[in-house]
Design brief:
Belongs to the G-protein coupled receptor 3 family. It is found in: Cell membrane. It is a multi-pass membrane protein. It comes from Eumeta variegata. The structure is a single chain. This protein is an alpha+beta fold and about 260 residues long. It folds into 4 domains: about 5-60, no CATH class; about 70-100, no CATH class; about 125-175, no CATH class; about 185-255. Helix content is about 35%, strand content about 20%. The protein contains 6 helices and 11 strands. It has helices spanning about 5-20, 40-45, 185-210, 215-220, 220-240, 250-255, and strands at about 50, 55-60, 70-80, 80-90, 95-100, 125-130, 135-140, 145-150, 155-160, 165, 170-175. Strands 3-4-5 form a 3-stranded antiparallel β-sheet, with no helix packed on it. A two-stranded antiparallel sheet has the order 1-2. Strand 8 and strand 9 form a beta hairpin. Helix 1 crosses helix 2 and helix 3 (about 185-210) runs antiparallel to helix 5 (about 220-240). The longest helix is centred in the last third of the chain and has 26 residues, at about 185-210. The two termini are about 95 Å apart. The relative contact order is 0.05.
Length: about 260
C-alpha cells in the first residue's frame, strides 16, 4: 500500500511530465491541459518513475501496479512462554529476501518441514500408490528373499535360486560357498589329528602284514582286521576331503 508521501509525489511527477510535454514548458496551465482526459492521465501515470524519500525506486509495472514491497514477520518463541513478532525478511521488486536462520519452525527444529505427501521408500521397500493420487503412496516391505523390481517401483521381485538379496536389497547376489578352509585353525587341527591317526594305522598295518603268519594274528581274524584297518584309514583320509573347496570329485569321495 502506498503511503501519503508517495501518493503526493506520484501526482507531482505526473503533472510535471504532462505539463512539459503538452504545454511545451510554458509556465502556467495551458489550454491543452484544460481539462485532461482520463486516458491521457493514465498514459502519463504509467510513465511515472522517481526515487522516493526512503531511497527506493518507484515505478508502475506493465499492469499499472505499483512496486510490491512486503516485510515478512515471524511469530517466534524467544523464551518459554514468551512470543514476539520478528522481521525475518522482505519481498522487494519481485525478489524474496529471507533469513532462514532466524526462522524457527519448531522449538527443537530449525529446518523447514518437507512439503511432500509421502517420503521416499527405504531400501527393500516398494510403493503402493493411493487411489486417485499420483504423488501419494504407502511403502511395504519386500520379503526376505525379494528385492524391489528394478523396472517397476510398485512390485517386488524374488531372487533366482542360488542367490540372495545384498545388504542394500537392490540386487541379487550369488550365495557364497561356505566350507572349512585349509588355512583355518580348525582345519589345521583336524588335519594334524588325522595325519597322526593315519601314521599309527599305517604302522599297525605294517606290523599286521609282517606278522601275518603268526598264531596271534591268525587267531584275531586276519582278514577282518585288514578290513577294519582299511576303514579306519579311510575315515582319517576323509578329513582332507572336507577341508578343501567342494568339487564333484570331492563330494563323491565324501559320500
Amino acid at each position: 500500500m502506498l503511503n501519503a508521501s508517495s501518493k503526493r509525489m506520484i501526482l507531482m511527477f505526473l503533472a510535471r511530465d504532462m505539463h512539459y510535454e503538452v504545454c511545451g514548458g510554458r509556465p502556467g496551465l495551458c489550454d491543452a491541459m484544460r481539462p485532461a482526459s482520463g486516458p491521457d492521465l493514465l498514459r502519463y501515470l504509467r510513465k511515472v518513475k522517481f526515487t522516493g524519500l526512503s531511497g527506493d525506486e518507484f515505478r508502475f509495472d506493465a499492469n499499472g501496479d505499483g512496486p510490491t514491497r512486503y516485510n515478512i514477520l515471524h511469530f517466534k518463541q524467544v523464551s518459554r512462554g514468551v512470543y514476539r513478532w520478528l522481521r525475518v525478511g522482505q519481498f522487494l521488486d519481485d525478489e524474496l529476501q529471507l533469513d532462514l536462520d532466524d526462522i524457527q519452525f519448531k522449538w527443537w527444529e530449525r529446518r523447514p518441514p518437507e512439503s511432500v505427501c509421502s517420503a521416499e521408500c527405504e531400501l527393500g521397500q516398494a510403493k503402493q500408490y493411493v487411489e486417485g493420487e499420483s504423488c501419494c503412496w504407502h511403502c511395504f516391505n519386500c520379503t526376505q528373499y525379494e528385492i524391489r523390481s528394478p523396472l517397476v517401483e510398485t512390485a517386488c521381485m524374488e531372487c533366482p535360486r542360488g542367490t540372495l538379496p545384498d545388504a542394500t536389497r537392490t540386487f541379487c547376489r550369488t550365495i557364497p560357498e561356505a566350507y572349512l578352509r585349509p588355512d583355518s585353525a580348525w582345519a589345521i587341527g583336524a588335519m594334524t589329528f588325522s595325519s597322526v591317526g593315519i601314521i599309527i594305522t599305517a604302522f599297525v598295518c605294517g606290523v599286521w602284514v609282517r606278522h601275518s603268519g603268526t598264531p596271534v594274528v591268525r587267531a584275531s581274524g586276519r582278514e577282518l582286521s585288514y578290513v577294519l584297518l582299511a576303514g579306519i584309514l579311510m575315515c582319517y583320509s576323509v578329513t582332507f576331503a572336507l577341508v578343501f573347496r567342494p568339487t564333484d570329485l570331492l563330494c563323491s569321495i565324501q559320500r
